[in-house]
Amino acid sequence: MGTLLTQARIAKLQSFVERLVIRLKPWTWLWPPLAFAAGLGSFFLVDRQQWLGAVLALGLVFAWLLLLSESLVGRWLANRGYPTLPKGVAAFIAQMIHQETLFFTLPFILITTVWNSGQSLFALLVVAMAVLSIIDPIYFKIADRWRSLYFLFHALCVFLVVLVTLPIMLHLTTGQSLLLAIATTVVVALPSFWHLLKQRSFSGWFSLLAMMLLLAGLAWFGRVWVPPASLWMTGSALSPALNIQQRAPSGSSALTPQAIKEDGLYAYTAIRAPRGLSETISHVWHHNGEPLDVVDLDINGGREEGYRAWSHKLNFPDDPSGQWRVDIMTDSGQRLGLIRFTVSEDAEKATIADSQIRPAGLSRLNLQRFIAGRDRDADQNDEE
Question: Regarding beta strands 307-313 and 379-383, do their DSSP bridges make them parallel or antiparallel, or are they unpaired?
Fold first, then answer.
């Protein structure tokens, strides 16, 4: 090993890296749009050409392995008297990987966010981080002066990488990916709280453990604000009936108490998921803010218009008038979408269940129509 890693060879390699960085700097403005395009391509191609989506995601994971190992390798070289990369070069490489991460994952976050919920705050946070990563004065000021904030920034980028890439590469469910993302983030965030161990005392270890548990707890309990980056609702509808043969809502009715007690009510949703991904979602029915029923539905990915799932509610309270909401949730508690409607004795104030499938999120753009391929049809229904 000593004959392979000589001072001259290490210096030559690092000189090559420095020259490469100097040549790349004038073209760094191209990196964010390229990363965004790669993320957008991975999102829409993953259920058409699985290998391509996985390759794009694998490239992001490989870049992160390099970044996470750079510090350890640099420390190992320094302890043995070898030259290390200048601080500016290392910071430049880290910035490029942060930009790649944020702009690659941004399409997943923007498309799967339920914008009329708290998830919009998380999406705006990711957008703000992406903008910050391309503003050099602010980014490098945080990296140099506010190390704890920088490590938290770094940890959140790791969270996004794991959350987005694992469902694509390993077909893990959103719940499994979320748990692994939280665990990885807690480990990567350790340097932010390492100052608590300066005295190596019992109180220092206890404080560090408490901070790690607090971070993991906040991430888990705040999961409803985190979009399920591999799933999104493409459309929803309310209807008094359902055409089983066509698997489509049908009929029209004003949602008065008498009408819903006689015919019941169908909540229809179309959920898009990458091909090969199997999930359990839930329709959670609420009346005036109080949860009443939960209907679990198993879905499989791959269909362009979305996996068609519906629940049929027949049991209503004696007085069903008021505000209703159907939350569409993953089994890990992340929100996919929601349907709101009003039941009223006054037909003019009551919501009209007209069977019209209304696009959700960004699905009305229908970008997938530009990608050739066959759809796989699969459907699920349940009644309550």
Answer: parallel
Q: Which residue has the higher pLDDT, 384 or 300?
A: 300
Mean of the pLDDT values across residues 14-28? 67
Taking the complete model, does pTM exceed 0.70, yes or no? yes
Q: Which residue has the tokens 């209304």?
A: 358
Distance (Å, whole) CA 36 – CA 38: 5
92's CB contacts (< 8 A; 6+ apart) are: 21, 25
